[in-house]
Amino acid sequence: MGEIRQLNEPHEFREAFPVMRQLRTHLTEDLFAELVGEMQEEGYTLFALVDEGEIRAAAGIAVLTNLYYGKHVWVYDLVTDNKARSKGFGYEMLAFLESFAAQNGCSCVALSSNFERVDAHRFYEDKAGYDRVSYVFKKNL
Predict the structure, then answer these.
(1) Entry's PROSITE patterns (predicted)?
(2) Third-level CATH fold of 3-111
(3) Which of 20, 44, 91, 126 has its CA 20 to 30 A from that of 10?
(4) What is the DSSP string of 73-124?
(5) Would you state the torsion angle of the CA atoms of residues 109, 82, 11, 27, taken in this order, to the nearest 10 degrees?
């Protein structure tokens, strides 16, 4: 369907911002570009799925290793443009991330999803074959 490419430059981050903002509504374009730049230094990689010259989906990931998953791909951000939902772009991006994980010697792909994102949960479990395995806990300081 689309072409998935890695975004490396600040102007590319800004091109992805209108789609990413649909998931990360609290961010400004400037803060998004700044944070992605900082996160790249920590191993974050941003991908975009481009179809007919438009970014239809975006995903931000890192290859990590921990005691419970071993080496894995952690998906920090995964969003499909609201105007392009239910057209297979999210599934295509997730399949790409799974292939990327396998090619990089990872044992799994893992992500967390906000409680309110019921449609996303249905997608992950029913269409993409993911298991709900834990809760994430957070305390603001």
Answers:
(1) GNAT
(2) Aminopeptidase (3.40.630)
(3) 91
(4) EEEEEEEE-GGGTTSSHHHHHHHHHHHHHHHTT-SEEEE---TT-HHHHHII
(5) -80
